[in-house]
Specification:
Largest sheet: 2 strands, antiparallel
Distance between the termini: 36 Å
Radius of gyration: 15 Å
Mean pLDDT: 84
Helix content: 25-40%
Low-confidence stretches: none
Order of helices and strands: HHEE
Shape: globular
Strand order of the largest sheet: 1-2
Length: 91
């Protein structure tokens, strides 16, 4: 598992690249295919950073969706949960 140091700064160039890539996709809840594309992109990027990605799938009105999760730090420590939606953009 990758260790994140508190002193690391955000890579603005990388963040902008990710926003641009995700903005190209129709990530509406009405388009599970676009959401799958976004999830694959996020999962690939997290795995490239060395994280183990877990998927939690669920079904709403017959359509399947997923949450992606990673853990940072030792399992024995208190957890901080951070959430973000990738399904809020429709073209």
């Amino acid at each position: 598992m990758k260790r994140i140091e508190k002193t690391e700064k955000a890579n603005i160039t990388a963040l902008e690249k990710h926003v641009r890539e995700l903005a190209k996709l129709d990530r509406s809840f009405e388009n599970p295919s676009g959401l799958d594309q976004a999830a694959r992109y996020i999962k690939k990027e997290w795995e490239a950073l060395g994280f183990k990605v877990r998927e939690q799938t669920f079904t709403v009105q017959g359509k399947q969706y997923k949450n992606l999760m990673i853990s940072i730090g030792p399992a024995s420590r208190e957890k901080l949960i951070v959430g973000a939606h990738y399904d809020v953009c429709a073209h």
